[in-house]
Amino acid sequence: MHRTFHIPELLHLIFAQVQSPYQQNEDFNRRALNKNLGRQDFAALARTCKTFQGPALDFLWREQETLTNLLRCLPTHLWEEEFVDRPVFQRRRPKRILRITDGPIQPADWDIPLAYALRIQRLRLRWWEFDDYMDEEFSAQDVFEKISSGLPRHHLCPNLTGLVFHFNQDSLFPHIRLFLGPKVVDATIQLPTNSSHTTSLHVLPIRYPQLKTLRVSTYSPQAEPLYSDILSKIVLSLDRIEDLSLDKLDGVAIEHLSQLPGLKSLNVSELLDWNTSPLARSIMDRQNPPFPTLRDLFLGDTTIELAIELLNLLPDCCLLNFHVGTAVSVTNLITRQLYAALASQLSHFALQSLHIELSEDREMPAPPEHLLPNYVINGHVLAALFCFTNLTEVSLAPPVGFDIDDATAWDMARAWPKLIGLHLVAATDLHHPSSLSLRGLRAFAKHCRELSSLTITFNASTPFNDSSEIMILPQTSLTSLDVGTSPITDPSDVAQFMSGLFPTIVYIPTQDEWRWDDVVDDDIVAFVGEEVAAYDQFTRWKRVEEMLRKSRDASKVLDVDAL
């Protein structure tokens, strides 16, 4: 054997290459690991090769998403296993279910499990996955109590560096201490609803100053009035944090985070009520620039005004991803200010993903219909964002949508040639009619060759045949075209046009098409007013979708015949 294989660092690099495409900072999935990494081969290597036994076992045990593998290392009289058939549609082998027996666990019974537990570096425990591996009559509470009763050391996995702990029962949360060893630098914690656990969060045995990743959320963040204060205390103890995700933040916490040299990602679920002016002055008066290494900023639920204020704290920031969610309807004047702040504060070359959307699980009240022109976003407002030349994902949802013409579509496509996903929608049920014609989609076919998902409203009812137009090669990346409320008259003409421009389109969703999932003939007769028009547009677009499918199938047959 070559002597380089005896060098642990080189062997680690080899194993890391074998396990590609898995990345260390991604959420691991057991089925993906089994499929891509040859785990059975590593198990065989550990059993048959003395030189590789240790490294192979390290690889096999390093990431776990269940405790059952450890529990199966207990003496066999302490557990039983059965195989349960899965539903037919899953087409997978029977599921292995573990059942712990009633006998006591002696300290010596832990010798083998604890030896393997030393190799575990990342552990993910989530209640919906936990139940998938354990017998229904033996709850997570039983498992944790069984472990606690006989464990001869403080922590089950003392070398653990990453922990995901998601349990929705109050009685289970205290058992997190079994896993919070001194080496944990990556913690993802889902709090239950009990306020006593919420208030004890900041006194958990976590070395907060050493953490690099911290994600904390709760099932009821608004139920605990002290929750924000507790999160603020935790944030003030963070020194080396790189990735932070919390339900709430106050101004004091934001000021502390702005001075951290390593913070790369900040995710705040709710940011609605903090006084920005004193905070901005305090941060900008500091000698060091604020948020020097921030690359990802996610604000789940805020106001556009607060987003603008926060952007003003990011001079020349090289953000890669910027996400704002809001449920507050604002005029196009405020939206123009937001776009201008983005253009003036962020690097035009670094930004890759831009999302300004409706907050998740929220509804935005529609503005008065007679004021609709004050809320629609036209090409002049949108043009402020055309300076970001490396965007790959754009999702914008102003209150009533956009009024984009063909010229704006061409300007947009030329400005954003690297787009993979583009979604321009309305956040309310009130939609401004679009000036974009079907012909305007040619811009995306010509300039956005990697675009695979497009959501945009246009007018497919206007004539579009023009023999003088320059020939554009078919764009073969687009598979989903969400047409929203786009009007259409002749599905055949539209399908013919689309097949020459975007031949690989598979899905053509329409606005709220779920309403028509279970429609029968009797329902159609009962439709009135808007329902009649909406259902008619839906059926016409589905005819286009079907025609494109047939055209695609016919092309495949011709290709086969040509072989």
Describe this structure in words.
This protein is an alpha/beta fold. It has helices at residues 8-18, 30-36, 39-48, 50-61, 68-71, 111-117, 127-133, 140-150, 195-199, 227-236, 251-258, 276-284, 304-311, 332-345, 379-382, 406-415, 442-447, 491-501, 521-526, 530-561; strands at 63-64, 79-84, 95-100, 122-126, 162-166, 186-191, 213-218, 243-248, 265-270, 296-302, 321-326, 353-358, 377-378, 393-396, 402-403, 421-424, 453-455, 480-482. Strand 8 (243-248), helix 11 (251-258) and strand 9 (265-270) form a beta-alpha-beta unit. It is globular. 30% of the residues are buried. This is F-box domain-containing protein.
Map the helices and strands:
Elements: H1 8-18, H2 30-36, H3 39-48, H4 50-61, E1 63-64, H5 68-71, E2 79-84, E3 95-100, H6 111-117, E4 122-126, H7 127-133, H8 140-150, E5 162-166, E6 186-191, H9 195-199, E7 213-218, H10 227-236, E8 243-248, H11 251-258, E9 265-270, H12 276-284, E10 296-302, H13 304-311, E11 321-326, H14 332-345, E12 353-358, E13 377-378, H15 379-382, E14 393-396, E15 402-403, H16 406-415, E16 421-424, H17 442-447, E17 453-455, E18 480-482, H18 491-501, H19 521-526, H20 530-561
Parallel strand pairs: 1-4, 4-5, 5-6, 6-7, 7-8, 8-9, 9-10, 10-11, 11-12, 12-14, 13-15, 14-16, 16-17, 17-18
Antiparallel strand pairs: 2-3
Helix pairs in contact: 3-4, 10-11, 11-12, 13-14, 18-20
